[in-house]
């Protein structure tokens, strides 16, 4: 069994990308709310005078900073195992901070989302390979909680070797 982790020198890039995605989604949501409030207001120009746009930047920056800390902690604990008959995504739970442990427990209780996932080779429905990630989707994939999908980021050690492994896997399925 071979374990793959995110490389030390690429952990900050991985965490920044993940946190940036979250901050962009939040900024988009807040902008939509601001625009809806402008439509509801009698005169949109008055609303623009009232809204302090710098608060939006402070809030989004704060969310980015907090999410970056959590994502870098997750990157330290994330491990992928590729075996002959299965692919496993897991976290070294002793390396996680209490915030991430709490979040994982809460997601599992509320949504049934499992942080530790295992997909058997026979259950793989499709594999998508790109320069940024390898996305493995099983037959029992659940869109709402993410169970049944493993995404291996390009920042893992020996990504090119994993990429070739899954390209051969796809060729064997299609043959």
Using brief descriptors, characterize the structure shown.
three-stranded antiparallel sheet; 53% helix; 175 residues; alpha+beta
Describe the structure in your own words:
The chain has 175 residues and is α+β, with helices and mostly antiparallel strands. The chain has 5 helices and 7 strands. Strand 5 and strand 6 (133-138) form a beta hairpin. Helix 1 (11-40) runs antiparallel to helix 3. The longest helix is centred in the N-terminal third of the chain and has 30 residues, at 11-40. The protein is elongated. The two termini are 26 Å apart.
Short account of what is shown:
With about 180 residues, the chain is of the alpha+beta class. About 55% of the residues lie in helices and about 20% in strands.
In which order are the strands of the major sheet placed? 1-2-3-4
Gyration radius (Cα, Å) is 20 Å
Task: Tell me the quaternary state.
Answer: single chain
Which structural class do the helices and strands define? alpha+beta
Distance between the termini: 26 Å
What ranges have pLDDT less than 50 throughout 5 or more consecutive residues? none
> What fraction of residues sit in β-strands?
15-25%
The gross shape turns out to be elongated
Taken in chain order, the helices and strands follow as EHHHEEHEEEEH
Mean pLDDT: 85
Summarize the main sheet: 4 strands, antiparallel
Share of helical residues:
40-55%
- What's the helix count? 5
* Number of DSSP E strands: 7
């Amino acid at each position: 069994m071979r374990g793959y982790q995110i490389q030390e020198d690429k952990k900050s890039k991985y965490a920044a990308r993940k946190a940036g995605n979250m901050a962009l989604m939040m900024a988009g949501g807040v902008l939509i709310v601001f625009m809806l409030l402008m439509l509801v207001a009698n005169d949109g120009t008055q609303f623009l005078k009232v809204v302090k746009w710098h608060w939006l930047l402070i809030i989004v920056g704060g969310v980015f900073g907090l999410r970056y800390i959590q994502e870098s902690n997750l990157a330290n604990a994330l491990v992928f195992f590729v075996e002959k008959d299965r692919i496993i995504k897991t976290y070294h739970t002793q390396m996680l901070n209490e915030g991430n442990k709490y979040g994982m427990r809460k997601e599992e209780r509320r949504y049934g989302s499992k942080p530790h996932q295992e997909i058997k080779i026979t259950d793989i429905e499709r594999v998508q390979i790109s320069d940024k990630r390898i996305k493995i989707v099983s037959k029992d994939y659940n869109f709402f909680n993410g169970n049944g999908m493993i995404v291996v980021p390009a920042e893992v050690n020996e990504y090119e070797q994993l990429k070739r492994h899954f390209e051969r896997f796809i060729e064997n399925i299609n043959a």
